[in-house]
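Per reviewer request, we include the raw input and output of the structure prediction for the construct analysed in the revised manuscript.
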Amino acid sequence: MTRWIALIVGLLIAAAVPVTAPAADDAPSGEAPAGQQRSRVPLPEFLKVPKLQPVPFPEAGQFRSAIDRGVAFLLSDQNRNGSWGTAERTKDLNIMAPVPGAHHAFRMGTTALCLSALLELEPYRADVSPAIDRCEQFVFESLPQLRRADETALYNMWGHGYGIQALVRMYRRNEDPARREKIGNLIRMQYDYLGRYESVDGGWGYYDFDIHAKQPATKTVSFGSAAVLVAMREARDIGFEPPERLVRRAIDSLHRQQKPDFSYLYGEYLRFKPMLGVNRPGGSLGRSQACNLALRLWDQPEITDEVMTAWLDRLFSRNGWLDIGRKKPIPHESWFQVAGYFYYFGHYYAALSIEQLPPAKRGEYQAHLASILVRLQEKDGSWWDYPLYNYHQQYGTGFVLMSLLRCLPADSPVLKTSDSSTESQ
């Protein structure tokens, strides 16, 4: 009883801590907006975890082999039309997927992740260029056609969000003005679709079981809104400003789901059940990095380096809680109601979060991330965490390849090849 009283009192104190300016040595790695300093809200001591123990970075040959095998899997598994993923390999228990729209969404989200990974690897791997060219054509033809599956299922939000991230990388790859204009128009189109399918409360979710209206009353989920916000920030960085209203309302939604320890509810519909397993820190391990990252990228001052490192410490020191749910076929059947599909999603946004830290603080987290991901590679070169028709190996591999790339300094020789592939790009 005493322990619970202390926990409740500590949470109330954390919520009431006044916002103060950070000390000079707590300054974030990125520049704050003019006239604004990033604030610091100390985490209660009893909510912190022990400092991570150092782990060795994987050997260079092992690390390079993991990436080579992952790329080989994607190249061998690409569909003839340039996409990745199919509706095959069903099992006795499948998540609701109204045909054909749900599978259009799964395929587009999966394809966008695979394409993004290959685009990031192209400077080191000239052999991925033909696959990229085929996939870009698929994106131009199919992304404009993506819609909600029916009045209930809105899985298309993932296709629009990750589609934006792929388009950003396509834009950087192509210097032809006409092609860039085509890509830019497609980014703006995704903004329009995200406005159509935004929840009436702001943010995005993938189900509307209640109203079935033109403007969805979706079960807004924190991690979905966070993923879209991260994608929109990437597009803004290349000159495509998203609608201010969409961004502001999504940020507000995340704040409503944020708990005093900077974990996040699974969705706003669980706001009256904050201590449900999935809403506790163990249940939030795979989504808090994405939510904190999204708020950080959109200049919310409470997301300090301390917040980012606290949740990286938790992810790696308590990784077993997330790993227990990996590959389980029923969503949320594991401890803390963790679903398998959070595993590589969470590690990808952890990789992006590491980039937000000062360079001197990144190394230990990069070593932890790389050692986990290299160890979990499958025999066929893929990575997967939740059986989802024939999309899971592909999206998992896309997530992991982009995560591994962020474990290395930009000038690392590990990915350099002896041929002229780097110079040819």
